[in-house]
Protein 1
Amino acid sequence: MPVLRSGSPHRSVRSRATVAGILLATVSLLVGLPGTAGAAAAGRAPEPRHPEQDWAGSQIAEHEGTRTGVLPPAPSLAASVEGVDVSSHNGNVAWSTLWNSGVKFAYVKATESTSYTNPYFAQQYNGSYNSGMILGSYHFATPDTSSGAAQANYFVDHGGGWSKDGRTLPGALDMEYNPYGSTCYGLSAAGLVNWMKDWFATYKARTGRDAVIYTSTSWWSQCTGNSSAFGSINPLWVPRYGSSVGELPAGWGFHTIWQYTSTGPTVGDHNRFNGAYDRLQALANG
């Protein structure tokens, strides 16, 4: 067997062929991967890369701050109900501890885009229900990866359904800063509004309920042009980590749920329902 030395034409040809083969294999692999070349060809972003790091408020805290040092809101003279929201980053949740501390409702992240389901969903959803809580599930939206209808259907099919059992809240759509790129997902204000209309219409067709929307006033103003299209239909769940709920997005005269802290006991995210317990039951019953 001849010895191939440095500078040998045989080695040079083999090296070029090897490099060409690697490049061709890499391109073929990328074309075959869902959410990469296929998504790009369709004008969509790739599927989420770290959905376990995305939860209701994860991007609110990053972009708007947590107002560290601000005292939590004092109990209001008006009636309210304490709640929490959780996702996979919370792992297995101590629901009995939360129930005994006065928490009476919960929202659990079920899905993101059309590729992710919360691996802790069963423990979190069933655990909160078994503790006695009224509960619902939510979807973390990525409007640049697929249509509103596709994501609503995926959500309903993977934990986002609703039943008139007196304990199940309508599903919630989490609209906040994009964890993967452009703040407004590369869409115009009109494009985002239409995406949400598609999501909400599909969810209602599947469940019979108008879904809750989770969003911050700042993001909403920046990305939807402060649209008032949903205020008369979809209950508002608004995050603001401070001593008051603050200004609301256009279209809503009041909030339904206020996420008032991301650093509360046991799970971090704590909420207050804006009304007495019987009104929370009414929301569940539809």
Note: Residues 178 and 185 are 6 Å apart (CA to CA).
Protein 2
Amino acid sequence: MTGKITLRLLEGFRAVMQAKTVTAAALVLNVSQPVVTRLIRDLEENIGFSLFVREQGRLKPTAEALILYEEVQRSLISVDRILQSVEMLRDGHQGYLQIAAAPALALSFLPKMMAGFSAQYPGARLTLHMHGSETSLNMVLSGMCDIAVVMLSMRQSGTYGERILSGRMVCVLPVGHRLAGEATVGPWDLKGETFLSHPHVLDTRLQIDALFAAHGIQREMRLESQISYSLIELVAAGAGVALVDPLTATLYRGDGVVFVPFDPIVVNHYSVVTSSERPPSVLQERFIEQLKTSLYDTLAPEYRVVGG
């Protein structure tokens, strides 16, 4: 009957088999030679037969040792993989993240940011889902996603997530428009313009409508889209003017439009939300850290709102 065979004994045996000598095995294991000798002796006692014979001062493995080594090697390779996975998880280099994001972030900002993150952490698996901010928020709260990157109102951001950055909405005008050269554009400047808008489900639509109503400004409204990028393309196609979030405006690379800050300021809050039911993984923390840095570096300085 065999005695207790520990992982340490098998590691000592493998080291001697691979290094050929006790001296070399001790260097591999970063221990003294007597420790290696004791490991081999204890293993032999526990299994009930000899593993090595001495010939001219060197250890020569027995036939049984050669057979055992094949099994030990296969087993310890699996252990090595487990230990490597543990190390990668501890350092945030491995894991699976489900990310839900509002269209303004999923279409313009996150693809490049996630590509850079994936290159830095090749052991990580990332999935991006695009939904409205409310749906993305609910996906995290219900446990369907790990992280939501969204545009929340001040009330929602304080309740559910961490605000990363705030920016002012931007007016989109076709090239050659009479207001294209202005430093800012206000509600009074857009009187009578064909106005392309976000739908009523978005908080910013309610803010903008209230603002124009407060100034008594009538707008001609025909087209709506939840996606700022689509509104910009509609402006480029000559369909009217629009107000869009500053991040989409910053990243837009098409022709045919100009962007002018809107005044009075209508603020968009960019927030990150994680579950309050479980602590974030190391990988989540690394992702959020890079998200914050990338978002701040990406948003045009003239559109940032300090303390917004």
Note: The two ends are 73 Å apart (CA to CA).
